[in-house]
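user: can you give me the structure for this one chain? tokens are fine.
assistant: on it. calling the predictor now.
[tool input]
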Amino acid sequence: MILPSSFFISIMEKLWNSNYIKVMTANFTLFFAFYLLTPLLPLYLSEHFNATKDVIGLVLSGYSVTALLFRPFSGYFVDSFPRKKVLMICFALFAVLFAGYLAASTLLLFTIVRTLHGGPFGAVTVANSTVAIDVLPSSRRNEGIGYYGLGNNLGMALGPIVGIALYRWTNNFQLLFWLGLAVACFGMTVAATVKLNGGGDATRSTDKVAVSSELPKKTTRKISFDRFFLVKGWLIGANMVFFGFCFGVLSNYLAIYSKEAMGITGGTGTYFLLCAAGLILSRLQGSRALRQGRLTHNAATGIVTSLVGYTLFIACPNAVGYYGSALLIGLGNGHLWPAFQNMTISVANNNERGTANSTILVSWDIGMGLGVLVGGVIAELTGYAAAFWTVAVANAVGTLLFFVRTRQFFLVRRTNSNVR
């Protein structure tokens, strides 16, 4: 039997090259540093500034607004200028703003810092994820993006675990702010060692391992709306908004809800640990499907699993429902995130990778921001239980949208017939 040449190419191309490991590490530190503070900021605002629930929601949603504003422009800059330089500038700004939390002595100053922090956070996530695509061999890209997203998810899960544990031991928010600054600086240092030839511009690199032959050539394109938002993937992004909304409510209000409504004071760290375990399992379980190009399969698996998890969380207000939902939500997010990211990239041209990444991340930001804001308002008016019931409904609507419309939308517009 004669095997196709693509088989041998796939075997020979190395997924875990040194540059890929570096961008994976930088990605993890980025999300770890940011989400180290996320579940504790409502408590910080309440205890130190006596902020009400609706004000807390308004303050914390500010970063989503600026991330939303910066990310489309980030996609444009990443696709138009040397990616390494864009990445380092954004990472430096992201790290510096952690010092702002230490200096913010009033609620107004804290609101300004938190709002500004969303800008470089949104920009560096686009830049780093686009660099990750560039350093992956083309035959392993779907699989590689899946593993890359593990850094996002683990950072979002492990960050709160460490943050909550440190707060319980020390009751010192200043220590958390310093730790966030240190981790961000470490991530920036790692990112600085990533090698992209051609002055850091991946589109001109000749590195045989780091950059595939599919990379776009330099072209002059007119500035238009589709350079900032991937119009051809709009429904995939719209669908992602629903799932971002759910995690926005959960990640920001879990600690305070479990303490006030469920009487669980020491279980938040365990919750995020189980969520992280689910994320790891889902990546290992879903890598084969991604390697085979079965994107909609992974997306469907993640969406349905998340729906069960969020429903269990609010419908069963006991230890079984609480901790069981953590594992299910971790499994769900671990499947749906890389699937949706790959789906968005698969409807884009090679010279639109930055725009594709920014589009899916913008969609997540919109959902997260709405979750923080709407969740805080609903909690103030009717309580946290109602806010989490809203999460279950939003996830159900997102699930219905995917099966009724988004799946077929993607299959019609994909540029690669090998994905499905």
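assistant: here you go. Residues 1-12, 198-219 have pLDDT under 50 and may be disordered. DSSP finds 15 helices and no strands in the chain.
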